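>> received
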Amino acid sequence: MYLYGASGHGKVVRDIVEAQGESVSAFVDDNRELSQLDGTPVVHHSEELSPMIVSIGENETRKKIAERLSCRFGTAIHPSAVVSPSAKIGEGTVVMPGAIVNAGAVIGKHCIVNTGASIDHECVLGDYCHVAPHASLCGQVSLGEGTLIGVGASVLPCVHVGDWSVIGAGAVVIRDIPAGTTAVGVPARIL
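>> returned
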């Protein structure tokens, strides 16, 4: 497995890949001053390196890099994560330690389900979403492409959060949020 992005997030993804019994051959990074990261080699080209995970936490950057790569993408799911057999996980997605993905959930491509996050039954996450540590999505929540759900935030059942929206840390989302907006607070209000 190859990881695009030699950073702190990349180190976490490397740990997950190794915990699932695979090895990381190298990080790929645009910073030519890096030759290794904690003992793992860093290379500066990505041609024909497969499988690859884009190990960058920022949604828009992760999308730009994934779209320019012409490789096969891997998936990383930490062994301590609980993932229902009926859940679908898209390519390039990372499910971190202690995360829960329940029955019928559909996680798009290149998403991050971060440490201790909970994705309940029949939730749908668009591509490039990030559900931050200890955030909770109740049943049948849908997230548009590139949505960020902040640390410890909660989204109540059947709520839709539009594309490229940001939900602040600790927010409680009780109604739909339109695309391209930021919502914070309890209950969450659009800024």
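>> The mean pLDDT is 97.
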